[in-house]
Design a protein that fits this description.
- This protein has 1 helix and 11 strands.
- With about 140 residues, the chain is mostly beta strands.
- The chain has 2 domains: about 5-65, no CATH class; about 70-135, no CATH class.
Length: about 140
């Protein structure tokens, strides 16, 4: 599952995040990116990225050609939910806000205030990957 914020820098896609106005951190799993000014770092994992992050670079937003978020969505029993976790045959769907009576009717559990979650079989939902461009 590939979810999260991403940026296109020098024609290549990177896991990314805004750190302050006009500044973006790029995270790479490819140590060869040090040739493009990335700094090696202690390898670490972040959610939804399979390989370890091995180098990072801080850039100004004008250096980025595209900045976007990818979300995996599930259409389940007439509602659209964000997929927050998955296994080979199951999905964990989440609702934030909305009508809690509906979420309870669907068998969802309240995991924190206004957040409801449920594991479902993959074949019970239609899956859609949504890409939304973000402002730099």
């Amino acid at each position: 599952m590939k979810d999260g914020e991403f940026a296109i820098y020098l024609g290549k896609e990177y896991s990314a995040g805004k750190i302050e106005k006009g500044k973006i951190v790029l995270r790479s799993t490819d140590i060869e990116d040090v040739k493009n000014g990335f700094e090696p770092c202690k390898p670490f994992n972040i959610k939804y990225i399979e390989d370890k992050i091995v180098c990072m670079k801080f850039v100004n937003s004008p250096e980025i050609t595209e900045y976007f978020i990818i979300r995996t969505m599930a259409f389940y029993k007439g509602f659209e939910f964000q997929v927050v976790e998955k296994t080979e045959d199951k999905l964990s769907i989440e609702a934030t806000g909305g009508d809690c009576r509906e979420w309870k009717r669907l068998g969802m559990k309240c995991i924190e205030k206004y957040v409801y979650q449920k594991w479902i079989n993959k074949n019970e939902a239609e899956i859609k990957i949504v890409k939304e461009n973000l402002k730099l």
